[in-house]
């Protein structure tokens, strides 16, 4: 039986993993390969799954905890991909607050399912917005324990990619590359943009040339790791917006812009978070109506909100998936999300309903396996 190549693209919250996976998946598909994707989150209702499916990819989802704690579900989900014929390549995206993936996911996959999967190198994206500060010795607005996770993710990488170089000046790129090479002198470090595709030829060459599943387990303190995750407030929820019934019978309903909805929602929320001094890991909203989708993101307190996917659609009603990961109290986070949903509904003269809200601090990671 031909083995499926399994690749894992890790990195901190908002580093660009989903954007990178979509690009790699398109490249592999263009080469005639069958591709399957697996997303992962601490909660249910994932923006990433919806976004990747909307781009036409087959996506399996492991919600509710990280891959290492849901190892069996990862294996079952990967096995269900490609109902008639197994994919040639599976790209997996672990949760952005997760680390120790080599020992808890990649090694176990290699040992227990090596007949099924050929493991590629653990590729980790460096998020420049926080990398600049954390690699420079600060904590980037997070607790030292959360910054510890950021560094551990890079430390266990077999291939590091400095992402979003299209957004950096040449001197910023050089500085970040220097910091990465200095701290991780034995690792290949590449610079790329998952948005423009710059550097992707080098990435695909490096992925093809680098063997996966090393036997080196990361030296990691699980108490610090658990504290780092627990410093984060996590929220997934669904907000439904619709136009109010017209006051006059037979008069037209006012439509609203899907793109404006997501952008205003995140802008309102980010303003409140900045006022409260709360650093985001990644806050994303995906609104859909029919086949139209719009996505807005916010990845760092000193970065503007980005409308990353536009729909150009004007609609009567829309459903918005909200995934927010910030450094701080989940109850405060939920309060601010609710407030922003209400503010935007009022501003656009819409009715709104927020449901399926799960908000919490991620629990201590308890991996099913740990191979040293
Ligand atoms: N300019 C630029 N923006 C990027 C690039 N890669 C990702 N982004 C943006 O960064 C934000 C986060 O991207 P995602 O791909 O969702 O990041 P992620 O790592 O999957 O995020 P989580 O799953 O929440 O941890 C989005 O606004 C993207 O459009 C890049 O290479 N250049
Ligand atoms: Mg993602």
Strand content: 25-35%
The H-level CATH homologous superfamily of the largest domain, spelled out, is P-loop containing nucleotide triphosphate hydrolases
Strand and helix order: EHEHEHEHEHHEHEHHEEHEEEEEHE
Q: Strands of the largest sheet, in order across it?
A: 3-2-4-1-5-6-7
CATH architectural grouping of the largest domain? 3-Layer(aba) Sandwich
Ends apart, CA distance between termini: 28 Å
Query: Unreliable segments (pLDDT under 50, ≥5 consecutive)?
Result: none
Tally of domains: 2
Total of DSSP H or I helical runs spanning 4+ residues: 11
Radius of gyration: 20 Å
Number of strands: 15
Could you name the CATH class of the largest domain?
Answer: Alpha Beta
The fold-level CATH name of the largest domain is Rossmann fold
Characterize the largest beta sheet: strand count, sense, and whether it forms a barrel: 7 strands, parallel
| Ligand identities | guanosine-5'-triphosphate, magnesium ion
Q: State the shape.
A: globular
> Helix coverage percent of residues?
25-40%
Q: Which structural class should the secondary elements be placed in?
A: alpha/beta
Mean pLDDT over the residues: 96
């Amino acid at each position: 039986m031909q083995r499926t190549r399994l690749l894992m693209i890790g990195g901190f919250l908002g580093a660009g993993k989903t954007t990178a996976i979509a690009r790699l998946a398109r490249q592999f598909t263009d080469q005639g390969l069958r591709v399957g994707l697996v997303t992962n989150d601490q909660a249910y209702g994932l923006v990433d799954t919806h976004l990747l499916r909307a781009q036409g990819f087959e996506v399996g989802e492991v919600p509710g905890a990280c891959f290492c704690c849901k190892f069996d579900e990862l294996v079952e989900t990967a096995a269900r991909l490609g109902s008639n014929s197994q994919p040639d390549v599976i790209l997996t995206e672990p949760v952005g607050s997760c680390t120790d993936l080599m020992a808890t996911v990649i090694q176990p996959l290699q040992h227990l399912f090596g007949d099924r999967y050929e493991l590629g190198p653990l590729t980790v994206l460096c998020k420049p917005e926080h990398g600049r500060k954390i690699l420079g010795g600060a904590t980037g607005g997070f607790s030292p324990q959360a910054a510890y996770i950021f560094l551990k993710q890079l430390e266990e990488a077999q291939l590091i990619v400095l992402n979003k170089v299209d957004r950096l000046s040449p001197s910023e790129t050089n500085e970040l590359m220097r910091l990465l090479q200095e701290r991780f002198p034995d690792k290949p470090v590449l610079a790329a943009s998952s948005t423009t595709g710059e550097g992707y030829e080098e990435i695909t060459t490096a992925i093809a040339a680098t063997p996966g599943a090393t036997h080196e387990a990361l030296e990691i303190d699980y108490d610090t790791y658990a504290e780092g995750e627990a410093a984060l407030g996590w929220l997934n929820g669904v907000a439904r917006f619709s136009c109010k019934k017209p006051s006059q019978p037979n008069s037209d309903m006012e439509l609203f812009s899907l793109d404006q909805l997501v952008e205003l929602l995140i802008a309102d929320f980010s303003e409140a978070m900045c006022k409260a001094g709360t650093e985001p890991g990644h806050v994303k909203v995906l609104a859909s109506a029919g086949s139209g989708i719009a996505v807005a993101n916010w990845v760092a307190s000193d970065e503007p909100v980005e409308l990353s996917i536009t729909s150009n659609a004007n609609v009567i009603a829309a459903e918005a998936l909200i995934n927010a990961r910030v450094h701080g109290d989940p109850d405060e986070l939920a309060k601010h999300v609710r407030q922003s949903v209400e503010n935007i509904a009022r501003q656009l003269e819409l009715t709104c309903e927020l449901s399926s809200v799960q908000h919490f601090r991620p629990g201590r990671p308890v991996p099913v396996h740990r191979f040293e």
